[in-house]
Amino acid sequence: MEIREIVGNVRSIFSLPEAVIRINELIESGDTCNTEIERVILNDPALTAKLLKFANSTYFGFSGKVDTVQRAVSIIGHKELRNLAIAASVTATFKDIPSNLLNMDTFWQHSVACGVIARLLASNVENRERFFIAGLLHAVGRLILLHQFPKESAKALGLLNEGEEAVLNAERKTFGFIHPNLGAELLRQWKLPPDICKMVELQFEEILDTRDKFDASTLNAAVGIANFMQPYTNQKIDSEKSISKCTFEAWDFLGLTPELIESIITVAKLQVIELTNMIK
Fold first, then answer.
1. Which of 69, 111, 221, 273 could form a disulfide with 250 if both were Cys (CB 3.0 to 4.6 A apart)?
2. How far apart are alpha carbons 51 and 279 in whole angstroms?
3. What does the domain layout of the chain look like in residue ranges?
4. 3-279 CATH choice from 1.10.3210.10, 3.30.70.270, 3.40.50.2000, 3.40.50.720
């Protein structure tokens, strides 16, 4: 089965809320005003509450109290607001994964950790919020596989203690592609920015292009570090053994020493707890 066909089959199941889709469309059009976006947000009370919660969190560090959607839109900016809207709604989007295959609370805590760490690693990059979203959504393709092919994908996931590469090789052998390919295609159909889609798709690939290499290496490095903090499965994992060759290469490319990785984990822990509580 082709990647687009699989994603097309589940798009109605794994769909963003109407308000988030509309916000994305308005921002992608490049011809919208704050009032239009504010109106869409206010029509969804749950989204409104979560966005204001995000805006006032220490994680995003906006100055002053953000007490209205109007102020949130003007302070945060359109693209960052779109990313926060996705983060605020994504856990409810993937709600039909059998609990015997994956603990979704554990999965999202791991995904938040990936997003937080990716954003920390990209601290000197313009528009670094895209790294948070890419980290948060890096493994949505795995959720699609578990939903559509539970037996086969669970078998592949069971190889995680042999390393991420063993899981990816099993996916290639079974499906003819790996889960980041599926995830990136879903994000494209959601009309997320191309740089986020590409980051997710290339996270385990060897990249030559400078921009793509930095983005993909940053995401890959973040996933590897997050595995030390919070593996995304309930099975017992040897954290060091599960790290892939490309993750070690990503750490080397980014100049990450064991001491630096340890300090990143220390900084990330409190942020992960705060954000995980917000997206639930």
1. 221
2. 10
3. 3-279
4. 1.10.3210.10
Q: Is the pLDDT of residue 100 over 60?
A: yes
Per residue in 32-83, pLDDT tens? 888 899 999 999 998 898 888 888 887 777 767 888 988 888 887 888 788 8
The amino acid sitting at 203 is Q
DSSP letter at 61? -
Res 234 pLDDT > 80: no
Of 38, 125, 44, 100, residue with least CA distance to 74: 38
Alpha helices in 56-121 (DSSP H): 69-76, 78-93, 104-121
Exposure b/e, 13-30, CB count within 10 A at least 16 = b: ebebbebbbbbbebbeee
Q: Supply the DSSP string of 169-228, one letter for each residue.
A: HHHHHHHSS-HHHHHHHHHHHTT--HHHHHHHHTTTS---SHHHHHHHHHHHHHHHHHHH
205: left (phi over 0), alpha (psi -120 to 50) or beta: beta
Amino acid at 18: E
For the beta carbon of residue 3, count every other beta carbon within 10 angstroms: 17
Number of Cβ within a 10 Å radius of residue 46:
12
pLDDT band of 105, cuts 50, 70, 90:
confident
Contacts of 60 (CB under 8 A, 6+ apart): 54, 76, 84
The answer to whether the CB of 248 falls within 8 A of the CB of 256 is: no
Alpha carbons 106 and 234: distance in angstroms, whole number: 8
